[in-house]
Specification:
Layout (H helix, E strand, L loop, with lengths): L4 E4 L2 E3 L2 E3 L4 E2 L3 E2 L4 E3 L2 E4 L3 E4 L8 H11 L6 E3 L5 H4 L2 H7 L4 E4 L1 H11 L5 E3 L6 E2 L4 E6 L9 E5 L4 E5 L19 H16 L3 H10 L7 E4 L9 H12 L4 E9 L4 H15 L5 E5 L5 H10 E11 L2 E2 L1 H13 L5 E8 L5 H12 L2 E2 L4 E4 L4 H4 L3 H13 L2
Parallel strand pairs: 8-9, 9-10, 10-11, 15-16, 17-18, 17-19, 19-21, 21-22, 21-23
Antiparallel strand pairs: 1-2, 2-7, 3-6, 4-5, 7-8, 12-13, 13-14, 14-15, 19-20
Helix pairs in contact: 5-9, 6-7, 8-13, 10-11
The protein binds MU-OXO-diiron (FEO).
The site of MU-OXO-diiron (FEO) has 8 residues, from helix 2.
Length: about 400
């Protein structure tokens, strides 16, 4: 058992690390794990803000009992019902049957679908507050960051925002729990991957949520995943503002689908020409090798996207099709797009990538190029327009 981790006067972090799970939501890879953060306030009244994933087992609620030392748990505040945070609610209800559940009407609906009817419920959806003694909690509905019931809890005494998934991050807390105890470089890419994979689809709602806190003093951000931001909360708030406005860095990600290496040759050629034209951030990924989670992250990271596909049964390559569908689904905007491909006996890759371009509405920087057979050098030079135009547009807006 660790020493108590004080977030502020009478507020404790009681999160857990998950290093066993391979896939978050059974889809997104967790090479460096993930933390589920929960917070306990031991004031004149006691309150728990969110729980953790059920994989924590009894140790989570055992720990709460130790902290409470025989006192009752008065409130369970539910900012978000997804099971990585509500997984221990059943155990909490068994150990503290008189606990009052704090949420909103949508929380209640989802709660009852998971855990049965609740009588002891406080609906704070219309502005109610909870007075714990020293700490006073107010609540702000932030629907669709990440589910419809999502809300955030603000401690008006210490100016702490308990933000749910917002400002969260993949990666376990390996000793350092606060932003001044970690090297942010380790977390920065994983934070963007978390945003783009989990929250990005709801970017317009993130903007609405940020607007609600524009005039609120926030000294500390306590998310349900990743570090606590007490040294410089404006850093992550700024990142969320940037990402939810679809702003990106000057760089290009090239993603290709290639069965026998011919489309890959084109990708490498375009990448080399981008570098000759001055682009310094270039990533090239094989759609069959790199998990879609990282492809989406890099597309969220860079302004330029170049997609290349071989033809496959008169269509684009299936994994490229999956990527395109997911990009439409997440709705990332304001990207510059280049398209290329190759075919042996009929087309299909480029034709369908162009349909994707129309649907997603990104600016096509140059005519698409589709090469026949094994590309010769003079064939490859047909792609020079894509590299040149992409570099100009990326660097122009730097
Ligand atoms: Fe971390 Fe939407 O749950």
């Amino acid at each position: 058992m660790f020493d108590k981790v004080n977030v502020a006067e009478r507020i404790f972090w009681i999160g857990v690390n998950d290093r066993r799970r391979h896939l978050f939501e059974n889809i997104w890879p967790l090479p460096t794990g993930v933390s589920y953060n929960s917070y306990l306030i031991c004031d004149e009244k006691t309150a728990l803000i969110d729980t953790v994933d059920f994989t924590a087992g009894n140790s989570f609620v055992d720990g709460i009992e130790k902290y409470l030392a025989g006192r009752p748990l008065d409130y369970l505040v539910i900012n978000h019902m997804e099971l990585d945070h509500s997984g221990e609610i059943k155990e909490i209800l068994q150990r503290f049957p008189d606990v009052k559940i704090v949420g909103n009407a949508t929380t209640k609906r989802i709660f009852e679908a998971y855990f049965g009817i609740i009588e002891n419920f406080l609906d704070v959806g219309r502005g109610a507050t909870v007075d714990l003694g020293y700490h006073k909690l107010s609540f702000t509905l932030t629907p669709w960051v990440h589910w419809p019931e999502t809300m955030m809890t603000y401690d008006t005494t210490e100016k702490i925002l308990f933000s749910g998934d917002a400002f969260g991050c993949f990666g376990t807390l390996d000793g350092g729990i606060f932003d001044d105890e970690i090297n942010f470089d380790f977390y920065s890419d994983e934070m963007l991957r978390y945003y783009s994979n989990i929250v990005g689809k709801y970017s317009p709602m993130v903007q609405k949520a940020l607007a609600k806190f524009a005039d609120v003093e926030i000294k500390c951000v306590c998310s349900t995943h990743g570090p606590i931001w007490r040294d410089d909360p404006s850093k992550v708030i700024g990142l969320y503002d940037k990402w939810s406005k679809y702003e990106a860095d000057a760089g290009v990600v090239i993603i290709f689908a290639s069965m026998y290496g011919n489309t890959e040759k084109i990708a490498d050629y375009i990448g080399r020409k981008l570098a000759e034209n001055g682009v310094r951030n270039i990533r090239i990924h094989d759609v069959s090798k790199t998990h879609i989670s990282y492809l989406i992250r890099d597309i969220w990271k860079y302004k330029g996207v170049i997609l290349g596909s071989c033809a496959y049964n008169l269509e684009m390559f299936p994994l490229m099709e999956q990527l395109c569908r997911e990009l439409e689904h997440t709705g990332v905007q304001q990207r510059k797009l280049g398209i290329f491909g190759s075919y042996s006996w009929n087309g299909g890759g480029v034709k369908n990538l162009l349909k994707f371009a129309e649907r997603i509405g990104w600016e096509l920087v140059s005519d698409a190029v589709e090469l026949h057979g094994i590309p010769k050098y003079e064939d490859l030079t047909r792609c020079d327009g894509i590299s040149k135009s992409m570099a100009e547009k990326i660097l122009m807006t730097e």
